[in-house]
Amino acid sequence: MKNKIIFRKDEGKFNLKLNKKVKETISRKDHLNAKVLLWVKLFFYLTIFISSIVLLYLNPYDNNYLYLICNYIVIGASGTFLAFNSAHDACHSTFSKKRWVNNLIYYFSFNTQGISARLWKIRHLDSHHLFPNVDGCDADIDDNPLIRFSPNHPKKYLMKYQHLYSPFLYSFYLVIWIYAKDFLYLNKKDLANLRNQNYPWWYTVELIIYKILYISYIIVIPIYLLDFSAYQILFAYLLMLIVDSNIFIHTLISTHFAMETTFPSVNEDGVLPYNYAQHQLMTSLDYYPESYYANFIFGGFNAHAAHHLFPNLPHTIYPKITPIIESLASEFDYTYNKLTLPGAIKSHFRFLKMMGEAENKIILNK
Question: Is residue 269 included in any domain, yes or no?
Answer without folding.
Answer: yes
